[in-house]
Amino acid sequence: MAMNGDGVHGLNGETVAPSETKHTNGTPSKSNIACENGEAEIHAAKQNGTKRRTPTDTFSFTAEPTIDDIRRMQAEFTDERDWNQFHQPRNLLLAMVGEVGEVSELFQWRGEVTEGLPGWTDSEREHLAHELSDVLIYLVELAEKCHIDLPQAVLRKMALNRLKYPASKVHGSSKKYTEYKD
């Protein structure tokens, strides 16, 4: 999808009112900004016959809870315990870093771990789910305390990343953008 002054244009050129925009997975977008999620690249790959991995090939998140739902649940949890006095940006950042350390411990000494975590027990996967949830909860609360609209920040950052790392220039390489020559 692309946007201009008169609305959002879908992959087939149809004009869609901003309130009718949808994400690739079919869920309605509440934003007037079309998702920068590679939809045009997926469409182009289909047209020229190349195989492109899409998020739906192997895994997708559920639509709910949304990031804002998570923010509200955590705010309620924190308010009920009178913990806002402790949940300032610096403290939330340090708590999140601690949780990232706990995620790291789960991968430590395992060597390379392939996608889907084959060989992990249900208990190990659930432990990982808990620790990743802690990281997400702290990240969302940190963004809230810093007044950062995280979904919109992601859209802006992905647009910047596309400029820094054009697929035609970086395909299959792990170099940093400063290492590429024009």
Sequence-ordered SSE layout with sheet pairings:
Layout: E1 2-4, E2 7-9, E3 15-16, H1 39-48, H2 67-80, H3 89-107, H4 122-145, H5 150-164, H6 167-170
Antiparallel strand pairs: 1-2, 2-3
Outline of the structure:
The chain is mainly alpha-helical. The chain is 47% helix and 4% strand.
Written description of the protein model:
This protein is mainly alpha-helical and 182 residues long. Helices cover 47% and strands 4% of the residues. Strands 1-2-3 form a three-stranded antiparallel sheet, with no helix packed on it. Helix 2 (67-80) crosses helix 4 (122-145) and helix 3 (89-107) packs antiparallel against helix 4 (122-145). The longest helix is centred in the C-terminal third of the chain and has 24 residues, at 122-145. The chain is globular and about 55 Å long. Mean pLDDT is 78; it is low at 1-51.
Which of globular, elongated, flat, extended, rod-shaped describes the shape? globular
Instruction: Quote the beta fraction.
Output: under 5%
Helix fraction?
40-55%
Spans of at least 5 consecutive residues whose pLDDT stays below 50 are 1-51
Averaged pLDDT: 78
Protein name: dCTP pyrophosphatase 1
EC number: 3.6.1.12
GO molecular function: dCTP diphosphatase activity; identical protein binding; metal ion binding
Catalytic activity: dCTP + H2O = dCMP + diphosphate + H(+)
